[in-house]
Amino acid sequence: MPSPFPGMDPYLEHPELWPGLHHWLIIEIARLLSPQLRPKYLVSVEVRIYETADDNLSIGIPDINVIQPKTTTELITSNVAVAARPTQPLTVNIPMLYQVREGYLEIRERGSQELITLIEILSPSNKRTGKGRQMYEEKREEILSSRTHLIEIDLLRRGQKMPVIGNEIDSHYRVLVCRGNRRPKADLYAFNVQNPMPAFPLPLRSGDTEPIIDLQELFTQIYDIASYDLKIDYRNWEVIPALSEADTIWADAWLRDRGLRE
User: Fold this and answer.
1) What pLDDT band is residue 62 in, cutting at 50, 70 and 90?
2) For 198, which of 44, 189, 218, 244 could close a Cys bridge (C-beta 3.0–4.6 Å)?
3) CA geometry: angle at 216 spanning 126 and 24, to 5°?
4) What is the pLDDT of residue 66?
5) What are phi and psi for residue 209, nearest 5 degrees?
6) Which value, to the nearest 10 degrees, does the dihedral of the CA atoms of residues 230, 236, 239, 244 take?
7) What are the chain's domains?
8) 151 Cβ contact list (under 8 Å, min separation 6)
9) For residue 173, what is the DSSP state?
């Protein structure tokens, strides 16, 4: 069963569902491209691993607000020393290291093993301040200063978008196709929750046939294979992160029209 939404399903941005979707997208893009690129090019799934502190926790902030009780001070006419009442402990969070694994795709020429195209699907850690974004930005700058093509897929509304120059369109989602031989020019596919996902070519060496990545078709297949229709409760769940007021009204009407809400 396909997603009820015309394009990206905002319910799949939920922190508990997004990692699975990210994995499925990596695998299915590789499955799509590999037979079309053989024998000249090889498609490989790679993993970037790093350790970082859990910046999702509110470091040093107590779980509850502390309210100091009102007390009265009494004069004690005694030569006996009185011990002060022990301070009550507060529950706080401390920074913990955890391991992050981020998948991405490489297209390499079989003979020379030269990296021709890099395909990245952005993760939440790439879009918020911290080690994940720092490492990704360094990798991005390295690629953009080379002749390697870059495809950057952003299906997350939350977080800071990757920088582009000359287009200030504020869209929910975007796909950047950046050819090594056209820089600083690049193609930006910007779309919202109301729009189907785009189809775009995979840049290769000049003169080679470029396969088309139809992101909407891939997403529809993944939604069905992963049985997301059985995992998502469209009647009762809230979208995380929340949609704007206008988009919430639109989504509610859209789901009602399809019998998923009363």
Assistant:
1) very low
2) 189
3) 55
4) 36
5) -65, 130
6) 140
7) 10-55+95-231 (3.90.1570)
8) 117, 118, 119, 120, 175, 176, 177, 178, 200, 202, 203, 213
9) E
